[in-house]
């Protein structure tokens, strides 16, 4: 499906309800398997979460296919191998089979997991012979995806000895680790995080049986971009968001304040966004703790004609696509002068935006949603537009409600 977005102007003062956080939802679903008395409200309706729900419902299948869902692959690898007695093959899409998982498998093997590779070493599909682990200590590199660490912490709550993780090097995406620990603490798990050592102890009985998932801050970022690219005075309301959020991507509010978007937290768990006057010639940030915001910020800066330098992006190369290369390809087509390395990007300021360009999404939901706000500046075509369902099923409906001129072919 192609989505054509012609030069648009948004309806002011719109109020949108955003689905629950994918990150929180998948963490809670694993915990619900370990502690069945848990009740979850406002669960994300994203493809990744649907993949998790469907996998956990399939109790007898010999092959579990989670398609494109990276978080689901990592969390289930830990759950199936150390918290069940099931033997199965865990697989996914062609792209999923190109995304490395060897570091997590090695860590799980330290705890007694029996996992082998059906194809290339270090990559799915995985053949798992599950058994119940007693837990213990595991050592792994610190500069890996936080999802590997979270997978170990979640299942560690089920182990008699709990789990102790020793990280070697500089830690990446600390906010996502802290989100996991906060959820565990709310549940009643005793945790410890000091220096490069993280501990989660066994939990026998939860202290809390009901969780309401906060709306997804990563999804909110696209509307921050829309406001940033709109005229001064444009406003919007989004719900449901907390000022003291567990989500690392809540930092989008501070980052976009520098791009002219003012955030006000309201009493009804809504946020009000407003475009304010802001003089800015250059934007720079280290996104090592919030790499999922990189595409959105890069496109916003290009649309504003602002020079942009983003660092801390090394994990983008192993996402749904190599996001650094994808950004370089598509922004160049639009007229940007952009340079990327293995962990950074730089965009020269430019007032030229080419019109009618078809944006490849590379089966990456964030590529589609990050580029869509540029319709406020020029006509644009988003290819494989349906890919947004991975994290935000109603994204295009929200844009239509805001007043974007869209057509589907």
Descriptive notes:
There is one protein chain. This protein is α/β, with parallel strands linked by helices. The chain has two domains: 3-19 and 215-408, UDP-n-acetylglucosamine1-carboxyvinyl-transferase, Chain (Alpha-beta prism), CATH 3.65.10.10; 22-204, Enolpyruvate transferase domain (UDP-n-acetylglucosamine1-carboxyvinyl-transferase, Chain). Helices cover 31% and strands 23% of the residues. The chain contains twelve helices and 22 strands. It has helices at residues 22-34, 47-57, 70-82, 102-110, 146-156, 174-187, 217-228, 252-257, 294-304, 323-334, 365-371, 395-402, and strands at 3-6, 14-17, 39-41, 63-65, 87-91, 114-117, 126-129, 136-141, 163-168, 191-194, 197-200, 210-212, 235-239, 261-265, 270-275, 282-286, 307-311, 338-340, 344-347, 357-359, 380-382, 405-408. The strands form six sheets. A four-stranded mixed beta sheet has the order 20-21-1-22. Strand 16 (282-286), helix 9 and strand 17 (307-311) form a beta-alpha-beta unit. Helix 3 (70-82) runs parallel beside helix 5, helix 5 runs parallel beside helix 6 (174-187) and helix 9 (294-304) runs parallel beside helix 10 (323-334). It is globular, with a radius of gyration of 21 Å. The mean pLDDT is 93. It catalyses: 3-phosphoshikimate + phosphoenolpyruvate = 5-O-(1-carboxyvinyl)-3-phosphoshikimate + phosphate. Belongs to the EPSP synthase family. It is an enzyme of class 2 (transferase).
């Amino acid at each position: 499906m192609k989505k054509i977005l012609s030069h648009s102007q948004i309806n002011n003062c719109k109020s949108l309800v955003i689905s629950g956080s994918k990150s929180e939802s998948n963490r809670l679903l694993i915990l619900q398997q370990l502690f069945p008395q848990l009740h979850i409200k406002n669960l994300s309706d994203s493809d990744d979460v649907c993949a998790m729900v469907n996998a956990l419902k399939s109790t007898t299948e010999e092959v579990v296919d989670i398609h494109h869902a990276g978080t689901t692959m990592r969390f289930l690898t830990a759950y199936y191998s150390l918290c069940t007695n099931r033997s199965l093959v865990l697989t996914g899409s062609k792209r999923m089979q190109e995304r490395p998982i060897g570091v997590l498998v090695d860590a799980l093997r330290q705890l007694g997991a029996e996992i082998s590779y059906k194809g290339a070493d270090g990559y799915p599909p995985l053949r798992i012979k599950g058994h119940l682990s007693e837990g213990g200590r595991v050592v792994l590199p610190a500069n890996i995806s936080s999802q590997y660490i979270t997978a170990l912490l979640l299942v560690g709550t089920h182990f008699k000895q709990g789990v102790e993780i020793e990280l070697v090097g500089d830690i990446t995406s600390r906010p996502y680790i802290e989100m996991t620990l906060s959820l565990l603490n709310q549940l009643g798990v005793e945790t410890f995080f000091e220096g490069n050592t993280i501990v989660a102890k066994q939990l026998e009985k939860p202290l809390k049986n009901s969780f309401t998932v906060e709306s997804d801050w990563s999804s909110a970022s696209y509307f921050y971009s829309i406001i940033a690219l709109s005229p001064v005075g444009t406003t919007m309301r989004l719900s449901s968001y907390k000022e003291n959020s567990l989500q690392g991507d809540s930092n989008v509010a501070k980052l976009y304040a520098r791009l002219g978007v003012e955030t006000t937290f309201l009493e009804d768990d809504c946020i009000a966004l407003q475009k304010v006057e802001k003089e800015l010639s250059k934007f720079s940030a280290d996104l090592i703790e919030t790499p999922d915001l990189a595409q959105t910020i890069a496109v916003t800066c290009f649309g504003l004609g602002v020079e942009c330098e983003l660092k801390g992006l090394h994990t983008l190369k192993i996402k749904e696509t190599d996001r650094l290369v994808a950004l370089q390809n598509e922004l160049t087509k639009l007229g940007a002068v952009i340079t990327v390395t293995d962990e950074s990007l730089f965009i020269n300021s430019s007032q030229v935006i080419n019109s009618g360009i078809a944006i490849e999404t590379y089966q990456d939901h964030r590529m589609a949603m990050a580029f869509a706000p540029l319709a406020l500046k020029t006509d644009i075509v988003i290819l494989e537009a349906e890919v947004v369902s991975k994290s935000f099923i109603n994204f295009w409906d929200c844009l239509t409600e805001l007043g974007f001129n869209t057509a589907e072919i």
